[in-house]
Amino acid sequence: MGESVSLGAIQETLLIPLYGRAEDARRQPSVLNDRRAIELVEAIDYDFTKFRGPSLSGSVLRAAIFDEYVRGFLREHPEGTVVDLGCGLSTRFDRLDNGRLRWFDLDVEDTMALRRRFFQDGDRYTMISGSLFDTDWFEPVTERPGPLFLLSEAVMLYFPAERVHAVLRQLATRFPDTPLAFDTGGQLMMKSQDRNPVFQAVSARMQWICDDPATLEVHGLRLRESRTFAQPQPAVAREWPFKYRAIAKLFGWAPPVTTYKLNLFITDPA
Questions:
Q1: 133 is in which domain, residue-wise?
Q2: Does residue 182 belong to any structural domain of this protein?
Q3: Which of 65, 110, 135, 203 has the greatest number of C-beta atoms within 10 Å?
């Protein structure tokens, strides 16, 4: 019998990308080769097979694009600090650790309780129980001076716009001139949720609609770049198996897909 799962409705969605990465790792060639994801899926008592459809592969491609955002930061600041806000069961630290960085994974209590069954804190890696909407985590992530990178993948989408905008302003004020990566979804994507097979398997639904990431600049951000699955970084695209490159070329320009953006901002409260 594997580890039991007791998660809130939104938190349960973290199991979707975990399964996506595990399925990707079972294929050759693999995008992420996340063998740890296979171990986690096999160790958790949950019916992952109810997750199906293109969103599984999409979660893998999304992870690859966000990985490259973090790599770009670490190329410039190899001893910088990365904070993953709403980490779920991400293995990004394992994938990107350069032996010098400082990493914090933050998530709410039930998720972190599950995570701690499989991961341990280390000299450069720390897990924090908390919400990205709170401020308790501000102090520990800035104890070590130096550049900071903030990341939040597939989290803000599940909350109302006013709450997301408030936290963006809060982050911009507290962490000025800091790269911040997160995803946004447009109205066409949101309207298609009930037709998406993975969402038919969970009760949570995304709420925040943002058709144009540039409009978020009024909340203290400056948009550096915005990508879709059809527009990954060149270094990332070169590593994708042919199947994914072909799919992105054929379907990446469909309206529901193009309204989903993977964005890199710089906080600019002034």
A1: 60-267
A2: yes
A3: 65
